[in-house]
């Protein structure tokens, strides 16, 4: 029945095209990109002299230029010397929490969320997965990923589950539970709203809070998520919780173990049960170690924020305040554990994605994804492995079948680079163009936030 209907429609389209005196291909919007080196997102070695045909936002064909059959009437773009890869996916973000670097849930409006999704897109992050601090306004925005929006696609957990009195969530959003029954009910509620997966927090902020989510609650969350056909991902900090959650059947960690080194026992259990390190959030941990962030003069960063934010970030008062915080000395060893443990997991064959935890104050949309890739490579994986984590691996974990690779049938969410990112991971910043569903969107090099369009000067 379905295919009969499809055939009927295309017959109608053909007839309309013939009546209008146009070739049938003119009905669709087709673009050909050619002469680039392809990094397809699957980990396959880069291939030179490639071409791609995209129609109505989807990739129709990809292969060597020698085999290209450009459809009549297609727009052709020559990308000689450029590198083409899938748009990046950030598997751990929070949307609409800040205005500048002032954090308050009052800033969570559809307009502010859209502004941030355009910033992600400008940095080549064409899909984000939000992890648990979004009001229900996120669900209509999530639905837009089915079409051709000019901003990043959204996957979401809706609201994550917090154990009453413990760490997690954001002020102003009531998302805490006290019993396994309440936890199961909350999971069902988020699943019914359309959550793509379920999130839980198991932490106590360096022991500053009295509670951590106990096993009867976490196991109820994980079990109910699975009953609802959803994966469960956990915010963790401690080795002991990582081990317990692994026993309980958690699907992934949204941060790495940061209180000690992981060992063969935990790595073996994670591997046996297929637990992913979905996000290692190395950029998050690194950002905490600075009193003044080290990239304020980097135009790739500065273009994405207003001059007022830059000034605030550079202020000696801010540096003094951050340096005096009681937890400040703990951040450097925490980062080191995160780096070492991520490297150990990768080496042990545990699957991993790429995620930053950007969105809260001073953790910047888009820029942090490029910093994260750099830190992953610094920790010990190859640039190609980091790129694969941020594209096809993230898509695989998220069950996002139509993104994450340059292949027929996928959305044409693409990143075009001036230089080879497999030679130097920092070349992901050499952004020439970003496509979402086949449409070019403004890149960060065409952006100058809070200033006149030309005030940031030309692209370096
Ligand atoms: Zn987070």
Automatic annotation (TrEMBL):
Alphabetized InterPro entries for the sequence: Amidohydro-rel, Metal-dep_hydrolase_composite, Metal_Hydrolase, Metallo-dep_Hydrolase
Entry keyword annotation includes Nucleotide-binding: no
GO molecular function: hydrolase activity, acting on carbon-nitrogen (but not peptide) bonds
Coiled-coil zones: none
One family name in Pfam for this protein: Amidohydro_1
Keyword list, A-Z: Hydrolase, Signal
Span of the signal peptide: 1-28
Ranges for domain Amidohydrolase-related: 83-441
Top-level taxon in the UniProt lineage: Bacteria
PANTHER family: ALPHA-D-RIBOSE 1-METHYLPHOSPHONATE 5-TRIPHOSPHATE DIPHOSPHATASE
Name of the protein: Putative amidohydrolase
